[in-house]
């Protein structure tokens, strides 16, 4: 949703990684963005304009002077239209040209004319990347406010190993989202928890729950996009690490408690989306329990309530909890808001299809201290994360 209707001008320059940018265009278009591709002459030696035209659904522009198209998609029109200008792959040549103020083709002219943020994703041979001239150009452009996504290390098309591979598509998409997001949380330090906890019975068996971490990760991602410094404490999850976010991996509720209390001090906002196990086995066997000796009844003890403990140290912090319920949703959620000293609590009825654990969507009610209940329709966890941040932004103002 974040990219829906957003106007992205994508410059493609002449490197072998140009073929990977076809996937980037697909992902951006799938997310609802309006993508206008501009190719340099060299780029067309690697991939045809027709590929990008088909994938973007828009004409691809390649020439600075085109008498028929100039009035509609000329360089100034494209420069003005862009909400963000992305160059991927960005060769050493285009970086050098931009740094040197050269505007001798359509793409470099757009770069010179645009007021939009410019994001470059370099890809080249490792020696070209390491060349001090290239590094100086990058340094100079960074100082001028140009944004870069560093290439990744690995096997390069030229046969070398080293830094120079175009960043992965999701990384580029994420940086585009960062550039397109408002920065209403800059200066805030947000602590987010995600995922389940695992409570060991013996070294190989544990008690846990179905949390995938998606809700907490969506919150962490959205907060970082909006300028916050984010620390994410998560139980075990299969989700990929998020760029520019401090990540603390934990397993048990006890470990999560320790990590939360340690980082709470410096946080201005705490959002607990983790599904913390309420109980843990009273005994943890040091060795794997033999099948013949497995108990049929497990003795449990209560885990600490992390959020309630944090709530006692609330001070001026904004604190948001979640409540996963299968019955009496509102009644027990009010009690949790009260008991844990929260500003907001997000209640999901996890029995509804499309809500709660594992899925990419959620259906929630948001309750606040004033007694207000806001009922939200089914939405993606990504959109819900932004909505929750909008609500927190209102609390910050009040
Ligand atoms: O991870 P996903 O698959 O995306 O699923 C998302 C989710 C369903 C896990 C998430 O939306 C959610 O509801 N998280 C909270 C689940 C939960 O543990 O609810 P609860 O009602 O048991 O706990 C209430 C609040 O207290 C929660 O903020 C919880 O983090 C916190 N808590 C609970 C127990 C405990 N011992 N310590 C806590 O801090």
Describe the fold and architecture:
- This protein has 398 residues and is an alpha/beta fold.
- It folds into 2 domains: 7-180, Flavin prenyltransferase-like (Rossmann fold, 3-Layer(aba) Sandwich); 189-397, Rossmann fold (3-Layer(aba) Sandwich).
- The protein is built from 14 helices and 21 strands.
- It has helices spanning 21-30, 49-56, 70-73, 75-81, 92-99, 106-113, 126-130, 132-143, 169-180, 214-225, 253-264, 306-311, 329-339, 381-397; strands at residues 7-12, 34-39, 84-90, 118-122, 147-148, 152-155, 161-165, 189-194, 199-200, 206-207, 229-234, 246-249, 269-272, 279-281, 300-302, 318-325, 344-349, 361-362, 364-368, 373-375, 379-380.
- The protein has an 8-stranded mixed sheet with strand order 12-11-8-13-16-17-19-20, sandwiched between helices. The protein has a 5-stranded parallel sheet with strand order 2-1-3-4-5, sandwiched between helices.
- A hairpin with a 4-residue loop joins strand 19 (364-368) and strand 20 (373-375).
- Helix 4 (75-81) crosses helix 6.
- The longest helix is centred in the C-terminal third of the chain and has 17 residues, at 381-397.
- The radius of gyration is 25 Å and the shape is elongated.
- The two termini are 28 Å apart.
- The mean pLDDT is 94.
- Ligand PMT is lined by residues 195, 211-215, 253, 272-276, 278, 303, 305-307, 321-324, 336, 348, 350, 356-358.
Topology record:
Blueprint: E1 7-12, H1 21-30, E2 34-39, H2 49-56, H3 70-73, H4 75-81, E3 84-90, H5 92-99, H6 106-113, E4 118-122, H7 126-130, H8 132-143, E5 147-148, E6 152-155, E7 161-165, H9 169-180, E8 189-194, E9 199-200, E10 206-207, H10 214-225, E11 229-234, E12 246-249, H11 253-264, E13 269-272, E14 279-281, E15 300-302, H12 306-311, E16 318-325, H13 329-339, E17 344-349, E18 361-362, E19 364-368, E20 373-375, E21 379-380, H14 381-397
Parallel strand pairs: 1-2, 1-3, 3-4, 4-5, 8-11, 8-13, 11-12, 13-16, 16-17
Antiparallel strand pairs: 6-7, 9-10, 14-15, 17-19, 18-21, 19-20
Helix pairs in contact: 1-2, 1-9, 4-6, 5-8, 10-14
The structure holds ligand PMT.
């Amino acid at each position: 949703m974040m990219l829906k209707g957003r106007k992205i001008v994508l410059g493609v320059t002449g490197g072998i990684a140009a073929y990977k940018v076809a996937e980037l265009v697909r992902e951006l278009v799938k997310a609802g963005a309006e993508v206008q591709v501009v190719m340099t002459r060299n780029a067309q030696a690697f991939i045809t304009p027709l590929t990008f035209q088909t994938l973007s659904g828009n004409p691809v522009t390649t020439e600075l002077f085109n008498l028929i198209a100039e009035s509609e998609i000329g360089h100034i029109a494209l420069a003005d239209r862009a909400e963000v200008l992305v160059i991927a792959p960005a060769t050493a040549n285009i970086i050098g040209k931009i740094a040197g103020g050269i505007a001798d083709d359509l793409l470099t002219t757009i770069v010179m004319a645009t007021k939009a943020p410019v994001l470059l994703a370099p890809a080249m041979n490792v020696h070209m990347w390491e060349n001090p001239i290239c590094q100086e150009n990058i340094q100079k452009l960074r100082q001028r406010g140009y944004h870069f996504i560093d290439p990744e290390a690995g096997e390069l098309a030229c046969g070398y190993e080293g830094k120079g591979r175009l960043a992965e598509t999701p990384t580029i998409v994420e940086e585009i989202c960062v550039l397109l997001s408002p920065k209403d949380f800059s200066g805030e330090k947000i602590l987010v928890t995600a995922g389940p906890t695992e409570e060991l019975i013996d070294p190989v068996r544990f008690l846990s729950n179905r949390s995938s971490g998606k809700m907490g990760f969506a919150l962490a991602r959205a907060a970082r996009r909006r300028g916050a410094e984010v620390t994410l404490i998560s139980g075990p999850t299969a989700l990929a690490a998020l760029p520019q976010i401090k990540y603390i991996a934990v397993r048990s509720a006890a470990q999560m408690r320790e990590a939360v209390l340690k980082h709470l001090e410096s946080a201005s906002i705490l959002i607990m989306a983790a599904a913390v196990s309420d109980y843990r086995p009273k005994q943890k066997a040091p060795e794997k329990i033999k099948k013949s000796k497995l108990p049929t009844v497990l003795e449990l003890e209560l885990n600490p309530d992390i959020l309630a403990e944090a709530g006692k140290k609330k001070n001026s912090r904004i604190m948001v909890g979640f409540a996963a319920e299968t019955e009496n949703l509102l009644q027990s959620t009010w009690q949790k808001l009260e008991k844990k000293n929260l500003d907001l609590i997000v209640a999901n009825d996890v029995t509804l299809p499309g809500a709660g654990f594992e899925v990419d969507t959620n259906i929630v009610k948001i309750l606040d201290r004033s007694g207000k209940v806001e009922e939200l329709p089914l939405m993606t966890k990504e959109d819900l994360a932004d909505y929750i941040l909008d609500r927190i932004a209102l609390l910050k103002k009040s």
